[in-house]
Write a structure and sequence with these properties.
The complex is a heterodimer. Chain A is of the alpha+beta class. Helices cover 35% and strands 15% of the residues of chain A. The chains are: A alpha+beta, B mainly alpha.
């Protein structure tokens, strides 16, 4: 009886409604956690797997030797490689395509690569502006990404090295 | 006011008679509607900001400094959008519906006294006028639902109709208690009866009625947590589903104008309208005597407008049958009980209110 009466008083004093409104009022004045994306960015792990890049040696020679390990390991069959023998006798690629629509960004290609040629950078805010064809990263575009971000790639590799 | 009138009369002697009064009424109406629309625009901005802040976001901040131009951008967007109507809709009713929604939402403002003697019309039965015109507003929603010839809007219209019927009664009974104390259905007279300081305001003897009125106002204006008429997660957008562009914007304007109106009405009925809260307190009364009454009215009603947003940010949507239960099984008996309580208080001459 007493319990029931107490419940009645509680209900009519709208205690639960007031409790809820207290919480929202508290959050109203709390510090906001929004990150203003284009100006501010959240920290990204050195292991982040974003857009791919093909790297070069410091002397400008491309690293990829067309061993096709990445093509073999790719679970989504996103990588297509054609190889040929260059005039100086070394084995190089003529075609190295990654279809970003197929790619699942698992990072296996990077793990498989014996010469650290294919890597995944921290870049994630890219868009295919021209057409759907833009989704296929050709060898030239991959090398370009690598050339532009060599410093960031090296930093990320150095940060992660001690855990490997 | 009369001095200005005389001055105009001397300057333009031909400006007289029926023509003059029509022009004056028009000017009054425009002077009312344009600020109202501006307030509506910035109320939507405030809503997005306040709810954002309560959800630890910061709300719109891209258009103009701190997002101040956001409502203007929204208005421009809606005005330039194409108005689409369903091919099997009843076009006349379809486009009549937004007009029927906005016309009462603006017409009710005619009787609101913003300050002593500052109103468009001083009806003797202004409270009844408010109730009557307020009920007409639902025709807009019902017609929109019916004329869309679509299922979700029809469901929304049905919900709206039954909600309005239930809560109109509750609001009516809650207002009866106010009328019992004030002894008048004229909003001016009701505000005048609350003269003389904070303790004379009606929210003290009518505290439960004030809460019931506010919650019923949430239902009447289809606001969260009672927004089952739109019910995004249940019936997509309710009556708004088939509307786009300016036709939708007109519904939006009507809804927000109604919300602001309900906030102002709550202040007039329960919080002393344009009266300063410092009346009767020795020094503060004279210290704040220079503040015009309309400022007090707007300040008090902006608290209620904030309460709308606060409530929306806090509570989840009620289930439809719960809203019905709240109306018929809790509010209605409670208001009737309070009518008797008020009758008793009137007989016993309790407090400064009678």
């Amino acid at each position: 009886m007493i319990d029931k009466f107490g419940k009645l008083i509680e209900d009519f004093s709208l205690s639960e409604l007031r409790g809820g409104m207290q919480i929202t009022a508290k959050e109203f004045v709390n510090k906001k956690i929004t990150v203003q994306f284009p100006e501010e960015r959240t920290p990204i792990s050195p292991r982040f797997r974003g857009l791919h890049a093909l790297r070069r040696y410091p002397n400008g020679e491309e690293r990829c030797i067309a061993c096709k390990l990445c093509e073999a390991v790719c679970p989504a069959n996103a990588i297509t490689i054609e190889s040929h023998r260059r005039e100086d006798g070394s084995r190089r690629t003529v075609q190295y395509d990654i279809d970003l629509f197929k790619c699942i960004f698992c990072g296996f290609c990077e793990e498989a690569c014996p010469v650290d040629a294919i890597v995944e950078t921290k870049i994630f805010d890219y868009a295919f502006l021209d057409s759907r064809k833009g989704s296929v990263m050709t060898k030239e575009r991959l090398l370009e990404v690598g050339d532009n971000n060599e410093k960031a790639i090296n930093e990320a590799k150095a940060q992660d090295a001690k855990y490997r | 006011m009369t001095e200005i009138w005389q001055w105009i009369h001397e300057l333009l002697p031909w400006f007289d008679g029926a023509f003059a009064s029509v022009v004056i009424i028009l000017i009054k109406a425009i002077a009312l509607v344009i600020p109202l629309m501006l307030v509506v625009a910035y109320f939507t901005y405030a809503e997005r900001k306040v709810i954002g802040y309560m959800q630890l976001r910061i709300g719109p901040n891209r258009v103009g400094p701190k997002g101040w131009l956001q409502p203007i951008a929204d208005a421009l967007k809606l005005m330039t959008k194409e108005i689409i109507f369903p091919s099997k809709a009843n076009i006349y009713l379809f486009f009549l519906a937004p007009v029927l929604a906005i016309a009462p939402a603006i017409a009710v403002w005619a009787v609101i006294p913003f300050d002593e003697g500052l109103y468009v019309a001083n009806l003797d039965v202004s409270l009844l006028y408010v109730l009557a015109i307020g009920s007409v507003g639902v025709y807009g929603i019902i017609l929109a639902g019916w004329a869309s010839n679509s299922k979700y809007p029809l469901l929304g219209a049905l919900r709206s109709a039954s909600l309005l019927v239930s809560y109109e009664i509750v609001i009516g009974f809650a207002l009866v208690t106010v009328v019992m104390i004030a002894g008048s259905v004229n909003l001016n007279a009701i505000v005048m009866a609350q003269q003389g300081g904070l303790l004379n305001w009606y929210f003290i003897p009518l505290f439960p009625m004030m809460i019931i009125f506010f919650i019923s106002a949430l239902v009447e204006t289809n606001r969260a947590p009672f927004d089952v008429v739109e019910g995004e997660s249940e019936i997509v957008g309710g009556t708004h589903v088939e509307y786009s562009g300016m036709a939708f914007a007109v519904f939006f304007l009507a809804e927000y104008a109604n919300m602001i109106f309900m906030a102002v009405l709550a202040v007039i009925l329960f919080f002393g309208g344009w009266h300063s809260p410092f009346e009767g307190i020795a020094y503060l009364e004279y210290g704040f005597a220079w503040v015009p009454g309309i400022v007090w009215l707007l300040a008090k009603s902006s608290f209620f407008m904030f309460l709308y947003l606060w409530v929306r940010a806090t509570f989840p949507r009620f289930r439809y049958d719960q809203i019905m239960r709240l109306s018929w099984k809790i509010f209605l008996p409670w208001t009737i009980v309070w009518i008797f309580v008020v009758a008793l208080m009137t007989q016993l001459q309790l407090g400064p209110w009678f």
